[in-house]
Amino acid sequence: MPFYRYKARDSGGKLVEGQAEAVSAEALAGQLQSGNMLPIKIEETAGKQDLPFGQRLTRRRTKVGLDDLILFCRQMYTLIAAGVPITRALRGLVDTARNQTLGDALDAVVDDLESGMELSGSFANHPKVFPGLLCRLVQVGEATGKLDDVFLQLAVYFEREKDTINRVKAALRYPTFVIIAIFFAIMFISLFVIPAFEKVFEGMGAELPLATRILLGISSFMVQNWPIVIGAVILIFVAITQGLKTEQGRYFWDRYKLKIPLVGDIILRSTLVRFSRAFNMSFTAGVPLTQALGFTARSVDNVYVGEKIDSIRNGVERGDTLTRSATQTEMFTPLVLQMLAVGEETGSVDTMLEDVALFYEREVDYDLKNLSSAIEPIMIVIIGGMVLVLALGVFLPMWNLSTLGK
Known about the structure:
By secondary structure, the chain is mainly alpha-helical. The protein has helices at about 25-35, 55-60, 65-80, 85-95, 100-115, 120-125, 130-145, 145-200, 210-225, 225-245, 245-255, 265-285, 290-295, 305-320, 320-330, 335-345, 350-405, and strands at about 5-10, 15-20, 40-45. α8 (about 145-200) crosses α9 (about 210-225). The chain is globular, with a radius of gyration of 29 Å.
């Protein structure tokens, strides 16, 4: 296939230059448009050359995220629906991929396809890039001849998942910022403000209040041992980060964060939304029930909830109904369990799973809207307590000094 050098504008209006392999200039223009870029100029080159320096800067070698998967699935749907062969479509996406990690994985997938391997099998060779749910549904699409529909469903699924994650992050951004601000405020007061009053307090000649003595002790310790304090904070941060990379640490955190007041229920419901949609999509695509549960357990991004889903799969394999197995996990509300029971009785589990996802989605929306109003009183109490301690520790001795002077 010939190579083309192109100039295009992305969704933000920024000029992007590069080159890619394509069947024709029209095909490359379609690929750019599916990637939310507006082609300006496309011209054929003599052969494949190194990427321009400007484009090398725009390509990054990072973890493949939901944005990359959404764009990839949308592009694959457009190219396959247009009749472009899979190998040509993937080879064209190798050079246009903005994530270098995804581009390298697609390059390896093309080599696997040319050697006779199936698309789903070649995707499965890169588990850190392509989720297991994607590989399994691609396998179903290959068997049914509806590969373009599968990529469209995956794109919609990843878009909904990204939307849910973004809403949860947006709701948690305010309390996280406030907690960090309070921490740095306490550090600043302990290191710079209180030491400035220490000489004034020493010249009073009277016994200092207990709150003042505590603040002075903490401030003195912080000033004299600040390297140790900073080192301890860094050490704790590194220990927590490394601990979360282990299986036990990840399991403990995934289980604990579901019990955090106010936030834990939101995280659990958003995880159940992801479970319901992934399970519904797998089941609708024709994946057997137990296999669909197995793939869904690994796609919810929560080890603790994944273990509960695996227990549902084990219960179904033993002969229990889906509703009875789900009841034993104690994760679902009675209304959801009743919906699942109706779905099993009527043979419309897929429809009920979509209703369950919508039900939890509405609950998450409601909780997110009320989260700020619920957290604000707690933040006010914390800030008020800090101000009270500082007032008693710093200003009370000054008031006593004023009284003694009179």
